[in-house]
Amino acid sequence: MTRLAVVFGIDVLVSFIITGLWGWAPWLDYYGFSPNHPQSALDYFYGLVFAGSLTFVGLFLLTSGILFVDSILRSDANYNESFLREAFYGDFRRLTAKYSALFLSILSAPAFYRVMWDLNEPREIRILGGFAMTMAVFLVLLLVTDWWLARPASRQRTVAASTRLRVQR
Hints:
Layout: H1 2-24, H2 27-30, H3 39-73, H4 77-80, H5 83-89, H6 92-117, H7 123-168
Helix pairs in contact: 1-3, 3-5, 3-6, 3-7, 5-6, 6-7
């Protein structure tokens, strides 16, 4: 329970940091948007990225919170080994995968909103489109980094289990 609370606390802290960084808006210059557009366009683009990123962080925090409460309330062994629960509250390698995927997807988010900027759609569609692309990148990165980082640990468990079987025979 204590470990779960610490991980959830880190998720909350990371969410506040991400929200603060997007609210501070130094990233506008990094994506080449500032020099080519007037202040009104910068404000509009800033609003797109901030609203979509805030939605993404909110969903991330909501998922983490639901899994936290559900992990406390349940004691089912099969549930504790589900992918989503392990991805959000697993061992150090899986937590590294989660935060790596979160960091990379948040860094790439303004590029998706830049793509949506060029579409002739209402603001809500631009926000939802950027959010959907950010979410898709997060999920793909979470799967790939989880597979990449957790793979050696599963191999070690398999080798250890086969060694125990040989010793018992």
